[in-house]
Amino acid sequence: MYTIQNLSYAYGSKIVLSNLSFTLPIGKIIALAGENGSGKSTLLRLLAGTMQPTTGNVLYNQQTVDNTISKDVSYMPDTNNFFLKRTGDQVFEFYDTVFDDFCLNKAYKIAEFLKVDGSKLVKDLSKGQRGRLKMVVVLARNTTYYLLDEPFSGLDPIVRDQLIDGLIEFTDRTQQTIVLSTHELSEVERIIDGLLLLHNGQLLSYEAMDAIRKEWQQNAVSWMKSQYERVD
């Protein structure tokens, strides 16, 4: 399980994240939300071990996270520079050689489900097709945690719905956790268990969706707006 303790990150004199503490339990889908510049991508990079905190701790099973966490966690960064000169099938084969938990048969199954043409070079794919391809290689790994940075950004509603369906179809909701940053809260609300809200690099709120619906009597977007109103 992930445990985040008094986590802060600064880039030079700019404080990006400040004193975050929370846990990410197994068997949940957690949406990471916040305005642009709130620190969502930085937090995911820290969880993925591609960056180290300025102060505080990121622990995975009580061990300090570093770049070796990649063998246990499947991370999807928000980037389009993704193996541009390889075909989709070549990308699958590469991942199969790098990660012991990557399942090539599962990759082809997910690719079929998401309608990914593995014979084409990545550079020749549309943005929607690239988004699907990235989702394939992330979900084809058998890890406990999947960290997804804006997996639906810039994609049309049909593609977003297909990717959301893929998350449900190809993960085990009892044994695996998905943490995804997104601006499309209304579309992912149907699958998420919790909502972690950042504001100016701080943890504004972290609430279960059941509580948002039953206790707050709000949907995800309304709840997020109400939390911002508290600090504006």
What's this, in brief?
By secondary structure, this protein is an alpha/beta fold. It has helices at residues 40-48, 88-98, 104-114, 127-139, 157-169, 185-188, 209-214, 220-231; strands spanning 2-11, 14-24, 29-33, 55-60, 63-64, 73-76, 145-149, 177-181, 194-199, 202-208.
Could you explain how this protein is built, in words?
The chain is α/β, with parallel strands linked by helices and 232 residues long. It has one domain: P-loop containing nucleotide triphosphate hydrolases (Rossmann fold). It is 34% helix and 26% strand. The strands form 2 sheets. Strands 6-7-8-3-9-10 form a 6-stranded mixed sheet, with helices on both faces. Helix 3 runs antiparallel to helix 4 and helix 4 packs parallel to helix 5. It is globular and about 50 Å long.
Largest beta-sheet details: 6 strands, mixed
Q: Provide the structure class.
A: alpha/beta
Radius of gyration: 17 Å
Helicity, in percent?
A: 25-40%
Low-confidence stretches: none
Classify the beta-strand content into a percent band: 25-35%
Spell the H/E element sequence.
EEEHEEEHHHEHEHEEHH
| CA-CA gap between termini | 33 Å
By DSSP, the count of extended strands is 10
Globally, the shape reads: globular
Question: Could you name the CATH homologous superfamily?
Answer: P-loop containing nucleotide triphosphate hydrolases
CATH fold label: Rossmann fold
Whole-number average pLDDT? 91
**Count of helices?**
8
Give the total of domains: 1
CATH architecture: 3-Layer(aba) Sandwich
CATH class: Alpha Beta
- What strand line-up does the widest sheet have? 6-7-8-3-9-10
